Amino acid sequence: MRAVVQRVDGARVEVAGETVGEIVGEGLCVLVGVTHEDTAQKAAQLARKLWSVRILQGEKSCSDTAAPLLVISQFTLYGDARKGRRPTWNAAAPGPVAEPLVDEVVAQLRALGAQVETGSFGADMKVSLTNDGPFTVLVEV
After folding, report:
1. I need a labelling partner for 8 at 20 to 30 A (CA). Which of 1, 66, 116, 139 fits?
2. What is the pTM of this model?
3. Active site residue 121
4. Which residues does residue 30 pair with via DSSP β-bridges, in sequence order?
């Protein structure tokens, strides 16, 4: 699994003009990509890492400050544009494999005590956020 994690001061996801997920104030906006070899165990490992990674102000984590997370599925994180002008998506897991694993990341975060908002899997989403820093890291498990 791969996640692009951004420290934000608010983030929102809209689908068809309606807000489906939103966090206010300091938190993390997390784009999650799933590949073919990923498992529920990797989803749990990613959730633990997201909950405890110390990238908020003052080197704090979401677990330290109860900061919220906005988790959004993002198959394009496994796009490959090394050849030609059009990326391939061969490394990205198909929806029936990826969706339950993204849901598992969210469920594991909530089990840890996190406040989690989400996008809508497979939807045409509009994501807006204020990147705080800017601060963006790539997390892989």
Report:
1. 1
2. 0.95
3. no
4. 5, 71
Name the token pair of 65: 């400050």
pLDDT tens digits, one per residue of 58-89: 999 999 999 999 999 999 999 999 999 999 99
Place of tokens 């939807």: 123
Choosing from 19, 57, 76, 130, which is the catalytic residue?
A: 76
pLDDT of 101-125, one tens digit each? Answer: 999 999 999 999 999 999 999 999 9
For the CA atoms of 17, 18, 23, 24, the dihedral, rounded to the nearest 10 degrees, stands at 70
DSSP strands (E only) in 34-119: 69-73, 116-118
Q: Which amino acid, one-letter code, is at 9?
A: D
Is 57 noted as a catalytic residue in this protein? no
Find all residues with CB under 8 Å of 107, minimum gap 6, and list them.
Answer: none
Q: How far apart are the first and last CA of the chain?
A: 6
Among 74, 88, 118, 135, the active-site one is 74
Catalytic residue among 75, 88, 115, 130: 75
